[in-house]
Amino acid sequence: MTFMYGDRVRSGGRLGVYEGIHPIHDGALVRFDGDGGQSLTRLSELEHVGKGVVTMGEERMLQFFQASHLPTGLREVSQPFCDLAYQMCDVLPGGPERTVMLRKLLEAKDCAVRARLEQQS
Question: pLDDT grade, residue 31 (50/70/90)?
């Protein structure tokens, strides 16, 4: 598979954006959502997810789905919602219905996180 700059990719269950090849290490540079920097990943470990790239600047609701700051137990519950939010933004056109979909998905994520917190206490 040939990756283009900006393609959505998955590596180890995490969604990211392909940003090219590192010339020295011959690995893929990937920016994972919420990390704020680039990670070096083997090309063989990347799975192509989609062509379109929706950024938090284009869809402000995506900022509320970030899970990297959460403790491991909460992150494992929250991350699938983040992945789904980005996938839906890749395939659905922007507009009021997509915003409502994201709002309801965010509400579901919040409920799942609270259920996990209740389980832990």
Answer: confident
